[in-house]
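Consider what follows.

. . .
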Amino acid sequence: MTSESKDSNDTSESAGSAGRPIPRRVDRADYYSATVDRAPAVENKSPVTVSTQARGSGGAGTSPPLNEATDSGGGDDKDSLGFLDHLEELRWRLLKIIIGVLVAAAVSLYFGEEIFAFVIKPLGDLQLHVTTITGSFYAYMVVSIFAGLFAIIPFVFYQLWAFIAPGLYKTEKIFILPAVIASSVLFGIGAWFCYQYILPFAITYLVSYGEGALTPIITVGSYLTFAGMMVLSFGLTFNLPVVSFFLAKMGILRSETLPKGRRVAVVLILICAAIITPPDVFTQVLVGAPMYVLYEISIIVVRIANRNADKQIV
C-alpha cells in the first residue's frame, strides 16, 4: 500500500469522525434547545470533509457524506419519542392537579359552613331550595371542590406553565415564575371582580326580570353552576394579557394580528359569553364587556413584547 493511499484513508476516517455528530441523550427539559444547538454543527462542513467529497467524486471506494446520512435517519424516531414523552408528562401533571384539588377539597369540606355562607352571599335575601334528598350534600361537595380549586390555583398554573417549559428557549424560561405569579394574581382579581360586582348585579337583574308575575324558586344546583361558571370564566379571562405576552415572546403573535382581528374577536367573545351565561342579552353584554377590555389590553401588551424582542435582535 502506497503512502498516498494511506493518507487518503486516514483523511477519510478523520472526515467521517468529524462529520458524524456525537450521540448524546436529550432530556425533556432541553429537547428543543438541544435540537437548535446541534443544527449548526451538522450544517457547517469542515474543509477536510469537502476535500474528501471532491476526491471521492470519481472513485468507487469513497463512502457518501456522513452528514447527509445522519440527517436523513433517526429524526422521525426522536420526534415520535418526544411527542409520546410530552403526552406522558401531560398525564402526570393533570394527575397532580386532580390530586391537589381533591386534597384541598377535603380540607375545605371541614370548613363547609363558613365557605357555603360566603358563596351564597351574592344572593342577598334570596333563599336556595333543594329538590332531592341528596341536594344539601351535593351542594357542600360542589362548594368544597370549587374552593379547593381556587385555593391551589398557583399550583395549577405552575403545572400548566411547567408543561409548556420544554418548548421554550432558555431566554424564555426565565419568565415561567413571573408568569405563574401574574396568572395567579390576575385570576384572583378576575374572580373577586366577578364575585363582588358582576354576580350580585346579574342575579338581581335576572331575578327581578319577572317580578310580580313570577315567583323565583332558585335551586342550589342551578345557583352553584351559574356562580361557579361566572367566577371561573372571569378568572381565566383575566389571564388573556399573560398568554398574549408569551405568544408574542415566542414569535407566534405579532402586534398587527390582534388589531386586524377585532371583528372576529367580538364575535368569539359574544359566543363565549352566551355559553357561560344564561340566554339573556344583558348578562352576555355584562360578561363580554370586560373580555373586550382585556382584549384591548392584550394588544398593548403584545406591542410592548414585540418592541422589546426587536431591540434584543438589533
